[in-house]
Amino acid sequence: MDNIKTKDLKINDSKMSDYNIDGREIIGALFDNIEFANKTKQSLKDIGFADEQIEVHYVNRTSKDGINLSLIGLGFPHDEALYFEKKYREDGKIIVIVRPKLRTEDAFELLIRNSGDVGLKINNTDESLKNNLEKMKNKINIQQQNFRQREIIGGIFTIPQDCFKAIDELKKLGFSNEHIRLYSANHDYAKEQLNLLEKGFTTIEAKYFEKAYQNGETLLTVSSTDRIDEVMEIITNNSGDIGFDAYEKNANDQNMHSFNDYDLGRD
To answer: Is the dihedral of CA 64, 65, 67, 69 positive or negative?
Structure first.
């Protein structure tokens, strides 16, 4: 997984008062080179976006003419379209366009995660925009800083096949059955108590995972590893839920302002 830092988020100076990720049918991001753009497209496909939902456009360096983008016509807000088109034509930036359907937040977060410039400026008069970007920053900070020293990590899967795929990828990276545990309603041992607190999970995670498991979800745990980044990436790339929503709910319940204020170590 890339070394993700909050400072890597690209905030530009254009007026983005129209921008709001909620309900957006089309979003985009600028990249400096085709390698990052193609990597982002593949990452989007890895988490379930279809090829026809993603477009990559760049100006041919051997030609003065690029594709005549009309982003306003595609559905981009006016100021955002002008910003993207200017960077694309004049600075040679590459633009990745996504039609996320009902997964706008997932696509937006991935564009930021890969250091894409989403053309978003925090407007102090627009709290919804500020909160949306702050939420993304906080998720990335959790992933970058707080899971680093963990000896065990888990993920909940709604579709068992996604979990099996994650296990296959973990084994290809050298993880053994000794470190991987699957808890599924299809197995006899699923009736046993999980006792996730004793296994090293935090109180919030233990309650969250155990409730989901009791509701028929599939739980995957990976232990005794110093490769947390790789494990997290595989789980999330295969639609696994590592518990971000549980921490967010707890933070809101405690009137907390940032995930960064919360200790994710053992209770």
So the answer is: positive
Q: Give the whole-angstrom CA distance, residue 181 versus residue 218.
A: 11
Residue with tokens 């410039």: 117
HSE, side-chain direction, 13 A CA sphere, residue 157 = 25
The pair of structure tokens assigned to 80 is: 């955002």
Pick the CATH number of 150-261 from 1.10.150, 1.10.443, 3.30.70, 3.40.50: 3.30.70
User: Where in the chain are the domains?
Assistant: 6-145, 150-261
Distance CA 31, CA 58 (A): 10
Can you tell me the distance from the alpha carbon of 12 to that of 15, in angstroms, rounded to the nearest whole number? 9
Q: 100: closest CA among 21, 36, 20? A: 21
Please tell me the distance from the alpha carbon of residue 180 to that of residue 64, in angstroms, as a whole number.
Answer: 54
Residues 69-93, mean pLDDT to the nearest whole number: 81
In the predicted model, is pLDDT for residue 201 greater than 90?
Answer: no
Looking at the chain, list the stretches that DSSP marks H as alpha helix, in order from N- to C-terminal side.
Answer: 34-46, 71-74, 78-90, 104-113, 127-141, 160-172, 196-199, 203-214, 228-237, 244-253
**pLDDT band for position 257 (cuts 50, 70, 90):** very low
CA–CA dist 241, 259 (Å, integer) = 17
Structure tokens at 126: 């627009």
Q: Is the pLDDT of residue 33 over 70?
A: yes
Residues in the chain, total: 267
User: Would you say 142 and 244 are in contact if contact means Cβ atoms under 8 Å apart?
Assistant: yes
Predicted confidence band at 70 (pLDDT cuts at 50, 70, 90)?
confident
Do residues 41 and 54 lie in contact, with contact meaning Cβ atoms separated by under 8 Å? yes
